[in-house]
Amino acid sequence: MTIKMYTTPFCKYCKVAKEFFKTKNISFTEVDITKDDKAMKEMMSKSQQMSVPVFDIDGEILVGFNRTKLEKAIKVA
Amino acid sequence: MYQLIIIGGGPGGVAAGVYAARKKIKTLLIAEEFGGQSVVSDDIQNWIGTKSISGLELANNLEGHLKAQKDIDLLEGDRVIKIKKLGENHFKVATRDGKEYETERILLVSGSRRRRLDVPGGEEFDGKGVAYCATCDAPLFKNKVVAVVGGGNAGLESVIDLMPYASKIYLLEKNGHLRGDAVTKKKIEESDKVEIRFGVDIQEIVGKQFVSGLKYKDMNSGEDVELKLEGVFVEIGSVPNTDIVKKLVKLNKRDEVVVNHKTMQSSDSGIWSAGDASEVLYKQNNISAGDAIKAVLDIYDQITSQPTE
Hey, what CATH class is B130-234 in? Predict the structure, then answer.
């Protein structure tokens, strides 16, 4: 399972999501879109939204932190 | 048939669930998520008995405490969309995923949610320019024109969060004045980037794939105005999650369930409420838990004082 997470530095939902993955011992790659314009465009083309966090879990795109939905996506992946 | 259905997985719902299980009340708890609104808090320092805990840890603890109870059924990840009253102390509860349950009593501890922008385009462009978290999404609006809706503290703080990024910020307020903290207000009033407009009655959010403008009626002049912009940050308070009981119980002006403060019972003798869904004055985790427990103890009294069928 590969998880890519697009974040911004002061986003509390991003912080919670990171904590969520850490407590479950799940590895993920974090991309700070404020440091990388290309990543910002990539995120927006994947999610079709202007909002963080965005998760790419083996191609499944989730926008926003929702514990139940994330748990489901991880179990499926 | 359940004796009790608890709706909500925040501190109130879980506290009620633990007490109901220990009292062996035949209970189902329906929770979309555990932890309530505090789940995104960095650091909670007033959850009694714990010096410091993150919202996520609190959610995990609540979930763990509930799941340690044997005598309770749990439906997780689903949401109650309808409650039908079939008779005195007899309700049918229907969920989004199509499940139906019958129960004698209901405890509504469903909390509250952010008030959404209820105009054409508000929902359609949610996440596509309409945003509810400036600290999160402000960087996505670099060099763009945006508006912040709401002149309370949260609105003012959103303006501050947007200042380093947006090229121009309209602060739109329905009333004639800004509320909120004086220091923040001064900072905003002194900024060249911010234009404050009062008497703004928002009519519509427009755009194609993403937001391209906002239409409002100027309540002072009566004129229709359209602003060209790409982001609308909404900070207009919260609303209790009481839609499912609005035809069954008495609500106050803010749509909170009116309760007897000794028992947390609503105007219907089969429905109780606690936490942010109820008219309790202080919206706090500890108070939600305590009030929900009060409700369960009253429910237990009602059950044990009735002859069993």
Answer: alpha beta
